[in-house]
């Protein structure tokens, strides 16, 4: 199988949620001495790009995305140990979590999956995350972006508390703060001084790619 | 987007006045809050829309209401009853509704729950240790469950002639995804549909038993919230396969009780509105993201909603009145908040909404 066909096939099987097939093809890529970075970028990530597109077009929804993401990650596990580290650029680093008081992490997981799929390094703090953890972990991992999500209007005020904490610690400028989730709006984001509000996961990823790099 | 709906007020007034002329069975004074709500839910015409906040996920037990209540209103009988009464007295909502959370259903299936306090609502902190197959076989009787028992006792204590008591239930999809890690659950819907159906059917049976128990204890209306089932998350195909059949079952089994059921769905639910309508609920309630005027044309059930909860939390009375008016104009039969209220929502804002709806009836009478 020539290289391009193999990539195309990996891409298709990611989209078709066929995890076993993706693993098999990624193993094949190693047997054929294809550089891991090419398999990742041209096969696996292109597959997830297509999945994001299908999500935006409302063809795919969360269950499908979770399945595709599993297929991609299984493929990644196969080729990752063979990555030539020098071929990698520093990824955008993201700290993400659902704010304290809320355990709905579906939207957050979706953003995490799509961000990982586009090559970002994502530290998932989980759900019901104590507000201080956002600040502490962002500093610890030297993150570029902090993403806070909530599905409940009852807990959205927590996002403001995090931003205030960043301000009082004099580190607000070091991070781009993203907020999202059911009850969140541009109005609310402006009001609490967040940098970015996005209405859905794919928009979050698109904008993260644009603004994620630190100006240093 | 909702703001577009201002111009249709005339139509609603016309409908109302026609109805009042043709069906002269109610007078303003004679119509209790219960009569009004039940009549609307049974498709009859009334003087003005009721304004309610059912409870459960959509509850008005905000900090200002519960701060002076002794004990935890989510877990203690007396505190729950007192809170339900105080919600109505302070906010002007025309119902009692218990409980004030979505966790009573998930505990029996082994999820760990934090019971919340006066500022934060109860929530699931850990999923069940059992896998989906074992969960489908777990033997449960709602009549032996202690938290369900507290809700039931509260319903009995609240039950009365004039004010409708609403028993609140978490839908089967949200219950399942609170018991099983949603990452596992959602994939199972695709990977293992048989197992998924087995679990959902087991959960739904429990929820239906719970609803029956509520009705037998005096609930006048059942309200189901199933935020996780929203079309935005599941998509049409999976919604039709895994959500709709269980809602239909709920409606069918409870039909002999002749108690109306309200169903609330969060998020951008536009893609599943018609499918949901097939379930046969008496009223559907949607989030503020959903354009009610468009939905109204597409469904047979009554429409409930959908005053934006952010507006209620952060804006002023003028804006809230205007938004409430927009809601009524867009054809809702029952006015309610669009989703769960923020715990910090100020009382005067909620009252701006309820008072406006009540005055709407007065103005209409005078006109």
In whole angstroms, the N-to-C terminal distance of chain B is 29 Å
Q: How are the strands of the largest sheet of chain B arranged?
A: 1-4-5-6-7-8-9
| SS summary, helix count of chain B | 15
Share of β-strand residues of chain A: 5-15%
User: What are the low-pLDDT stretches of chain B, counting only 5+ consecutive residues below 50?
Assistant: 1-28
Number of strands of chain A: 5
Q: Ranges of chain A with pLDDT <50 over ≥5 residues?
A: none
Based on CA atoms alone, the radius of gyration of chain A comes out at 18 Å
Q: End-to-end distance of chain A, in Å?
A: 45 Å
- The secondary-structure class of chain B comes to alpha/beta
Radius of gyration of chain B: 20 Å
Biggest interface goes to: A-B, 32 and 35 residues
Mean pLDDT value of chain A: 90
The percent range for helix content of chain A is 40-55%
Keywords:
heterodimer; A: 216 residues; alpha/beta; 5-stranded parallel beta sheet; 5 strands; 54% helix; elongated; B: 367 residues; 7-stranded parallel beta sheet; two-stranded antiparallel sheet; 15 helices; 11% strand; globular; disordered N terminus
Describe this structure in words.
The complex is a heterodimer of chains A (216) and B (367). With 216 residues, chain A is an alpha/beta fold. Chain A is 54% helix and 10% strand. Chain A contains nine helices and five strands; from the N terminus they run ααααβαβαβαβαβα. A five-stranded parallel β-sheet of chain A has the order 2-1-3-4-5, sandwiched between helices. In chain A, helix 1 (3-15) runs parallel beside helix 3 and helix 5 (106-117) crosses helix 9 (201-211). Chain A is elongated and about 55 Å long. The mean pLDDT of chain A is 90. In chain B, 55% of the residues are buried. Chain B is globular, with a radius of gyration of 20 Å. A seven-stranded parallel β-sheet of chain B has the order 1-4-5-6-7-8-9. Chain B has a two-stranded antiparallel ribbon with strand order 2-3. In chain B, helix 7 packs across helix 9 (193-216), helix 8 (182-191) crosses helix 9 and helix 9 (193-216) packs across helix 10. Chain B has 367 residues and is of the alpha/beta class. The A-B interface holds A 17, 58, 60-64, 66-67, 70, 100-106, 109, 128, 151-157, 182-183, 185, 187-188, 191 and B 120-121, 123-125, 177-178, 182-183, 186-187, 189-191, 227-228, 232-235, 238, 266-267, 271, 287, 309-310, 313-314, 339-344.
């Amino acid at each position: 199988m020539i290289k391009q066909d193999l990539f195309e096939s990996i891409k298709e099987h990611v989209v078709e949620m066929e995890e076993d097939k993706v693993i098999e093809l990624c193993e094949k890529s190693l047997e054929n001495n294809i550089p891991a970075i090419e398999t990742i970028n041209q096969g696996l990530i292109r597959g997830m790009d297509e999945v994001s597109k299908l999500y935006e077009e409302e063809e795919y929804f969360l269950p499908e995305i979770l399945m595709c993401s599993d297929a991609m990650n299984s493929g990644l596990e196969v080729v990752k140990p063979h990555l030539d580290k020098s071929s990698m650029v520093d990824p955008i680093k993201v700290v993400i979590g659902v704010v304290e008081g809320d355990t709905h992490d579906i939207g957050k997981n979706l953003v995490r999956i799509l961000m990982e799929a586009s090559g970002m390094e994502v530290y998932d703090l989980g759900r019901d995350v104590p507000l201080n953890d956002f600040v502490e972990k962002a500093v610890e991992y030297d993150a570029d972006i902090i993403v806070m999500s909530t599905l409940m209007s009852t807990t959205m005020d927590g996002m403001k508390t995090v931003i205030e904490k960043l301000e009082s610690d004099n580190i607000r400028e070091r991070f781009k703060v993203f907020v999202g989730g059911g009850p969140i709006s541009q109005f609310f984001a402006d009001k609490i001084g967040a940098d970015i509000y996005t209405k859905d996961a794919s928009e979050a990823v698109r904008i993260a790619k644009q603004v994620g790099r630190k100006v240093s | 987007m909702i703001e577009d709906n201002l111009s249709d007020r005339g139509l609603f007034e016309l409908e109302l006045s026609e109805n009042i002329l043709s069906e002269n069975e109610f007078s303003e004074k004679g119509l209790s809050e219960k009569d009004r709500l039940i009549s609307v839910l049974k498709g009859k015409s009334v003087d003005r829309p009721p304004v309610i906040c059912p409870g459960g996920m959509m509850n008005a037990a905000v900090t200002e209401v519960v701060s002076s209540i002794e004990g935890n209103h989510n877990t203690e009988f007396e505190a729950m009853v007192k809170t339900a009464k105080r919600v109505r007295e302070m906010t002007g909502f025309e119902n009692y509704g218990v409980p004030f959370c979505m966790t009573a259903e998930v505990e029996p299936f082994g999820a760990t729950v934090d019971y919340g306090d006066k500022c934060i609502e109860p929530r699931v902190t850990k999923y069940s240790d059992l896998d989906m197959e074992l969960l489908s076989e777990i033997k449960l009787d709602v009549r032996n469950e202690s938290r369900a028992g507290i809700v039931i006792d509260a319903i009995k204590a609240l039950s009365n002639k004039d004010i409708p008591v609403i028993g609140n239930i978490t839908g089967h999809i949200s219950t399942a995804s609170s018991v099983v890690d949603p990452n596992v659950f959602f994939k199972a819907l695709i990977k293992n549909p048989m197992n998924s159906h087995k679990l959902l059917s087991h959960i739904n049976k429990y929820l239906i038993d719970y609803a029956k128990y509520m009705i037998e204890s005096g609930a006048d209306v059942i309200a189901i919230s199933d935020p996780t089932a929203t079309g935005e998350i599941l998509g049409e195909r999976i919604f039709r396969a895994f959500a709709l059949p269980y809602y239909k079952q709920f409606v069918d089994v409870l039909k002999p009780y002749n108690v109306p059921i309200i169903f609330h769905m969060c998020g951008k639910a536009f893609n599943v509105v018609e499918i949901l309508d097939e379930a046969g609920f008496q009223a559907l309630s949607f989030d503020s993201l959903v354009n009610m005027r468009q939905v109204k044309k597409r469904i047979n059930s009554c429409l409930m909603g959908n005053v934006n909860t952010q507006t209620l939390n952060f804006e002023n009375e003028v804006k809230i009145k205007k938004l409430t008016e927009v809601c009524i104009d867009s054809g809702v039969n029952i006015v309610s908040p669009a989703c769960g209220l923020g715990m910090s929502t100020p009382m005067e804002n909620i009252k701006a909404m309820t008072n406006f709806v009540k005055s709407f009836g007065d103005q209409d009478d005078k006109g």
